[in-house]
């Protein structure tokens, strides 16, 4: 019985292109592979267009449109026409809307730095080597963010209203008069709610950045004799700068979008009118006066203000980083 010899590869000879390359894939398979990512992304892209891009485009288009109603309630006909920049002129001529933007700028100048400093200090304390039960306190500080804004505002309103607030009762017994809902204090009462709600959320962003710092950096700093304070000031703070910039930008945008807290506190705070914040002013024009053109113009102006403020902050931050 003879056995056929097994072919042995010849040494010293390079494999040809036909031997080394895989068989050419059919063109239809390549097309299917090219389409696969788009098919997987299609649900997200569809929702993104319908819930984000389309409302923005509709708002921009509506901001250049005016509606004329014939009759007392438009019963004789409703027509729309191109209004140019008339709606923007009306929005900027509204003293209440302009005052609300200034009010939110003051709010942001005070509240945003306080919240960023507070969340940074909490993150540094929780990530220090001597911190006890860091996971428990991390969850406790984050818990207020899980409370819906409506519920949080209602809970805090009980602590602001005279006759219901234990703080006001205790202060009154000591001869101190507290008015959390007065014209000069209600803005900072809202700032307290916002700070209580979002400090824990921003703290987790900073904590995530702290955890990404390599251990070798800490070990090198300790070898150089750095104590806990020196370590936080010269090592941790510079390395968590991207997280601080991100949380500050989010806070700037959120400041101009403030809506839920003042709308709910309207019921117990006479100092809060229908145009106390820019978003509240746009909401009032749209759903109380049915002036959707002016409301859309106000929404576009709010978005532009948020973009400009965020861009200026990022430009200043990048300039400092380069120095």
Walk me through this protein's architecture.
With 323 residues, this protein is mainly α. It has a single domain, classed as MetI-like fold (Orthogonal Bundle), CATH 1.10.3720. The protein has 14 helices and two strands. Strands 1-2 form a two-stranded antiparallel sheet. It is globular, with a radius of gyration of 30 Å. The model is unreliable at 8-12 and 17-22 (pLDDT under 50). Belongs to the binding-protein-dependent transport system permease family. Residues 101-313 form the ABC transmembrane type-1 domain.
What best-fitting shape do the alpha-carbon axes yield? globular
> What is the CATH topology descriptor?
MetI-like fold
The overall number of domains is 1
Mean pLDDT: 86
Helix-strand sequence: HHEEHHHHHHHHHHHH
Distance between the termini: 85 Å
CATH architecture: Orthogonal Bundle
What structural class is derived from the secondary structure elements?
Answer: mainly alpha
Neighbour order of strands in the largest sheet: 1-2
Number of helices: 14
What is the C-level CATH assignment? Answer: Mainly Alpha
Radius of gyration: 30 Å
Please report which band the strand proportion falls in: under 5%, 5-15%, 15-25%, 25-35%, 35-45% or over 45%. under 5%
The biggest beta sheet, please?
A: 2 strands, antiparallel
Low-confidence stretches: 8-12, 17-22
Q: Count all strands and give the number.
A: 2
The CATH homologous superfamily: MetI-like
How much helix is in the residues? 55-70%
